[in-house]
Fold this sequence. Notes:
By secondary structure, the protein is mainly alpha-helical.
Amino acid sequence: MLITHDTRCALDAVVDLVNSAPDDPDDEGGGNPEGLADVAALRAFVRNHSISDVGTLTERDLAAVHRIRGRFAEVFAAAEAHAAASLLNELVAAAGTTPRLTDHDGYDWHVHYFAPGASVADHLAADCGMALAFFVVAGEQERLRRCEAPDCRRAFIDLSRNRSRRYCDSRTCGNRLHVAAYRARRREAAGLEQGTPQGGDLERDKLERERLERGLQQEQVVQ
Ligand SMILES: [Zn+2]
Ligand SMILES: [Zn+2]
């Protein structure tokens, strides 16, 4: 599927938005604080993601953004395309959209969806909603995922070629779990094969490590 510059920006924004939510206090290992605690934090979010034309931000904007963040979290949690589609339809319809072609800032022609003068929540709902909608259209809704690390569950979008990414960030969650699995296998092998000459272990070690590294590199491929 084609991911234009703006789509990529919208995807980054929606992942950051969903992951700004505080952890459910009932969750094991919870403790991530509210990432959008006040208007200043929202202002920083808007600046970091270059969200244009949203005017002066207020407490109302903050509350509205918290609301749509909850809806987007449901999209990432949707088990299948129908559920994701109806959530996205609601989000985009409530935001009101005005699709218009633009080639601003030297980018190729692409479509903006937010209506002129839209609030920041409506802007996000329209453009991020449409960016996610294209995943459903392409039959790729399963790429919208939650990290499988037990103490993480952050949202991410799997853009790997073979849709095999399971963790939010292969350098932290992914790497950590690969290493844990690798060590567990090593311990098991050491227990089962006592008496094997040390040289054989080292060789197997090296091959295993290379295999893991190749796997990690594949996970990082972005199309
Ligand atoms: Zn644009
Ligand atoms: Zn993670």
